[in-house]
Amino acid sequence: MSSEKGNYYITTAIAYTSGKPHIGNTYEIILADAIARYRRAEGYDVYFQTGTDEHGQKIQDRAAQAGITPKEYVDGISDEVKRIWDLMNTSYSNFVRTTDKDHERCVQKIFKKLYDKGDIYKSSYEGLYCKECESFWTESQLAEGRCPECGLEVKPAKEEAYFFKMSKYADRLIEHINTHPEFIQPVSRKNEMMNNFLLPGLQDLCVSRTSFDWGIPVDFDPKHVVYVWLDALTNYITKIGYDPDGSSELFRKNWPADLHLIGKDIVRFHTIYWPIFLMALDVPLPKQVFGHPWLLQGGEKMSKSKGNVIYADDIAELFGVDATRYFVLHEMPYENDGTITWELLIERFNSDLANILGNLVNRTISMSNKYFDGEVRHGMSAEPDGDLQAVVTAAKAKTQEKMEKLRVADAISEVFTLFRRCNKYIDETMPWALAKDEAQRERLAEVLYNLTESIVIGASLLHPFLPETAERIVAQLGTTLRDFDELDRFGLYPDGSKVTDQPEILFARQDAKEIMQKVEEIQEAQRAAYEAEQRALGLVPETAEGEPVVEIEAKAEITYDDFSKMQFQVGEIIACEAVPKSKKLLCSQVKIGSSVKQIVSGIRKDYTPEEMVGKRVMVLVNLQPAKLAGVVSEGMLLCAEDAEGNLALMVPEKKMPSGAEIC
Question: What is the pLDDT of residue 561?
Answer without folding.
Answer: 64
